[in-house]
Design goal:
Elements: H1 2-16, H2 23-60, H3 70-76, H4 79-97, H5 107-127, H6 130-138, H7 142-147, H8 151-155, E1 162-172, E2 175-180, E3 185-190, E4 209-216, E5 222-230
Parallel strand pairs: 3-5
Antiparallel strand pairs: 1-2, 1-4, 2-3, 4-5
Helix pairs in contact: 2-4, 2-5, 2-6, 4-5
């Protein structure tokens, strides 16, 4: 039986003129999978770093303590980065599985190791500022900018009482002009209730970036602020 099987294999080799693949091709293929695995960890780490940046960016600008409506809550979820993060965990797992000894490791072990590596390096990247840099770099791309939602978007909602931007000119301490993050000009009047004045020690200055609570007056370009805070970068 074995001899018959061997004869069939030899006959097929001769008929189809099959030749063994050179060893360098196997080395190239294995190297490609390792390179892909390393790149996947890097990209996955960048994605996790961006997720962390956006999370802490919301907290830094006081948004974690503000009641969000359902729409804003859903918009604030960084879908693009979560999908990227999960996608490259899968790519890392697949790449390692096809390396020389990757078949020896269980699916759970590979996914766990990939997750740990990506979370660890992503945390380090966010700590050194790469998470912010990644987000700000991609924020210049119209497609990314249109599907991503960050703290500037959350504060650019004057119709529900939130406005932020750069002070372009000052008439006095209670009246000044602001250019919001979308480029719209606002005339702002600061009217802080007496009981809240101790919590609002920030004095508006030209060219400073601020965030405010308040409401729109009858004119769509006038905003009455009942509190004002410095925008923390």
């Amino acid at each position: 039986m074995n001899e018959e099987f061997s004869n069939k294999i030899m006959e097929r080799i001769e008929t189809e003129h099959l030749t063994p693949l050179p060893h360098w091709r196997f080395l190239l293929l294995r190297g490609t999978f390792w390179i892909l695995a390393v790149l996947s960890v890097i990209i996955g780490s960048l994605a996790f770093g961006a997720i962390l940046f956006l999370f802490f960016d919301f907290r830094r600008h006081g948004l974690s303590t503000i009641p969000h409506d359902a729409t804003e809550f859903l918009l604030a979820i960084p879908y693009v980065w979560i999908v990227t993060f999960l996608l490259f965990i899968v790519v890392t797992r697949t790449s390692i599985k096809y390396t020389k000894k990757g078949y020896r490791y269980s699916l759970g072990l590979i996914i766990s190791a990939s997750l740990i590596l990506i979370v660890f390096f992503g945390s380090v990247l966010n700590f050194v500022g790469v998470g912010r840099a990644t987000h700000e770099f991609l924020n210049e791309v119209p497609l990314y900018n249109s599907i991503n939602y960050d703290s500037k978007d959350a504060w650019n909602r004057p119709r529900i009482g939130k406005l932020a931007g750069i002070i372009s000119s000052i008439q006095d301490n209670k009246n000044f002009s602001v250019i919001d993050f979308s480029g719209h000009a606002w005339q702002v009047s600061l009217r802080i209730p007496m009981k809240d004045k101790s919590d609002n020690l920030f004095v508006p200055e030209a060219s400073s970036t601020v965030r405010m609570f308040g409401l729109i007056e009858a004119s769509s370009s006038r905003f009455v602020a009942n509190s004002i805070f410095e925008w923390e970068e």
